[in-house]
Amino acid sequence: MIKLLSFIKSIIFFLALFSASQINGIEMENDTPPEMPEYPSSYEEVMASLSPYYKAEQPLDFFFELYIVYTLNELPQGTLDALESFSNKHSSFFESTNGNWKQSVVSQLNLSKTIDIAI
Fold this sequence. Notes:
This protein is mostly helical and 119 residues long. It has helices at 2-23, 43-55, 59-71, 77-89, 101-108, 115-118. The chain has 6 helices and no strands. Helix 2 (43-55) packs across helix 3 and helix 3 (59-71) crosses helix 5.
């Protein structure tokens, strides 16, 4: 009897999920991931990409996202060059780390010194 009740609960749970997805217009088989924007490859593109973060008063989030990609060795050289250009033009932004945007991210977000390993 207990096994039958567990089985019935499982079926009800599955049907509830299935009907909820149909009601909300979600089709699980056709779920497509969002398209990722290209990485900025110039100073101007860095500024354009940073703008929404700056307006949301979270500019460090932009650099943290790039830091993660950098740590995974997936950040294109063009983006690294663009970030260096940004750092040179806005020296006060990363002043506490002598212009090193990576160290600044770790420092300003109070990340662990082993964050690279965690990533």
